[in-house]
Every structure is written in C-alpha cells, then in structure tokens.
Design brief:
This protein is an all-alpha fold. It has five helices and no strands. The protein is globular and about 50 Å long.
Length: 142
C-alpha cells in the first residue's frame, strides 16, 4: 500500500511537516523570552529538532529517483550535525566557547532545520527530472 498517491503529495507533506517543526522551534523555544532552560536543555532541544527535520527529509526525499540527491541530503545533515554537536559538547563539557563559534553553530543548525534546504532539494530534483523527460521525449520523436 502506498502512503502517498504521488511524489508531489509526498514532497508537499514533507515540506509542511518541516515548516511546522521549524515554526514550533522558533515560536516556543527561540523567541520565547519567558523560557528558563539549562544549557544542556537548549542543546538537547536544538539537537532533537535537527534530528526530526533530518528524518522527515530522509523519509520524504528518500524515494527520489536520483540517489545522489538523497546522498547529498545525508552528507549535508551529518556533517552539519557533527560540527554543531562537537561545538556544543566542547561548550558544555570543556570550556565556554566564544560568541563567534556559538553564532557559527546556530547558523549551521538554522540551515539544517530551515525548510529552504528541503525546498531547494525538491526544486533541483524537479528541474533535473523535467530536463531528462524533455530530452527523452525529443530523442523518441526523432
């Protein structure tokens, strides 16, 4: 049994879920000035949010015909998570890192949970597949 009737529905549902996770993170966690949470709690919520977006994207982009696109998704997320997690562990366990490194880690995390990365992957896939279909149709007509 197919979960989605088409790849378009699969892509749009993944985009909506990522937008909801992204919005939840910013509304209830980043922009909430009344929130009192420890440094470890902040790191845990940020890590869990990034992992959730990674799994949603993996599930919804995993059925792409171009396997290199899903490989690119994995490489971007795993490398970004390794960098941000390493900086977080150093900050939490060893010593306070400077504001520049904190800002760098937040920027990486922002890129990983942003719906723009997912949207860009989907648009690149659509353009490449559209070109491939156009080339195939042109070749078949000749």
């Amino acid at each position: 049994m197919k979960l989605y009737k088409s790849d378009k529905v699969r892509f749009i549902s993944g985009l909506i879920i990522i937008i909801l996770i992204y919005s939840w993170f910013y509304i209830f966690f980043i922009e909430n000035s009344n929130l009192v949470i420890s440094k470890l709690g902040k790191y845990f919520v940020s890590f869990a949010t990034t992992i959730a977006v990674y799994f949603v994207g993996t599930f919804h982009l995993g059925k792409l015909k171009d396997k290199w696109m899903s490989l690119l998704w994995h490489v971007i997320h795993v490398s970004g998570l390794c960098i941000a997690t390493s900086l977080g562990l150093v900050d939490w366990l060893i010593t306070d890192i400077g504001m520049n490194l904190v800002s760098f880690a937040r920027s990486i995390q922002e890129m990983l949970i942003s719906p723009l990365l997912y949207l860009a992957m989907g648009l690149i896939n659509r353009v490449l597949n559209k070109d491939a279909v156009t080339d195939t149709n042109t070749h078949n007509k000749q």
